[in-house]
Write a structure and sequence with these properties.
The protein is of the alpha/beta class. The protein is built from 9 helices and 10 strands.
Length: about 250
């Protein structure tokens, strides 16, 4: 079943065209990795999906419902935007945890504010999420008491708490030391086994090759190459893709 359909997404900042007609689909339970050099449009694409930026053209459809239509020039209402964001969870490069709240409180905050379930249900689900990311023993720790990898795992649990249709990661390991990267990637890999639909912007080529169902290589605002990990990594057609992968392996 198609969960996400993106058609002809175009986004500019002034005269700088960052997305130049990006189109792709994502099926339920699939993991899509987006790779490419800095400035290729990867983060802007994620921000458009999450309504943190608005494209000038194109459509974004989730489960058959149009979330964004560039042809609709009516003003975006904050209430509508908040509802649309519920379809997407976003885990940032920097963990963006609230320092005054414990790990458990960070995860519970958004569900409580949205009034989605009873306090008891939210607390039970939060405990289950902490166990899922391997942090049951850190529930009452504040962010300053956690390692970078642990903070990022709390951020993943916080995104999952809203039960999004699609979980998005923007370079989730780029702010981590190499020894902490593995623990975060292990959690993300575990989510794949639970049939979570994910989009992962990453510079971890091994992860993209081994965990993804689809890989997109973006360059200069366009999808230069798209296919299975085998097609993109082992049989790339584009010379730009070949050059990027050669440099990534050096």
């Amino acid at each position: 079943m198609t969960v996400l359909e993106v058609k002809n997404l175009r986004k500019s900042f002034g005269t700088n065209a960052v997305l130049k007609g990006v189109s792709f689909t994502l099926e339920k339970g699939e993991v899509l990795s987006i790779i490419g050099s800095s400035g290729g449009g990867k983060t802007t694409l994620l921000r458009c999906l999450n309504s943190l930026e608005f494209a000038e053209e194109g459509t974004i459809t989730v489960n058959g419902e149009v979330m964004f239509d560039g042809a609709d020039k009516s003003k975006h209402k904050e209430k509508d935007i908040r509802l649309k964001r519920l379809h997407f969870g976003l885990v940032f490069q920097q963990f963006n945890l609230f320092p005054q709240y414990t790990a458990k409180e960070n995860i519970m905050l958004a569900p409580k504010l949205m009034g989605l379930e009873s306090k008891e249900q939210i607390e039970a689900e939060t405990d289950a999420l902490l166990a899922r990311v391997g942090l049951s023993d850190k529930a009452d720790y504040y962010p300053c008491m956690l390692s970078g990898g642990q903070q990022q795992r709390v951020a993943i649990a916080r995104a999952l708490a809203m039960k999004p249709d699609i979980l998005c990661f923007d370079e989730p390991t780029s702010a981590l030391d190499p020894e902490l990267t593995g623990e975060v990637l292990k959690v993300i890999k575990g989510l794949k086994d639970s049939d979570t639909t994910m989009i992962v912007v990453t510079h971890e080529m091994g992860f993209a090759q081994n965990v993804s169902d689809k890989v997109i290589f973006m360059a200069k605002g366009v999808i230069e190459e798209m296919g299975t990990p085998e097609e993109v990594f082992e049989h790339p057609k584009s010379e730009v893709t070949k050059a990027f992968l050669a440099n990534a392996q050096e």
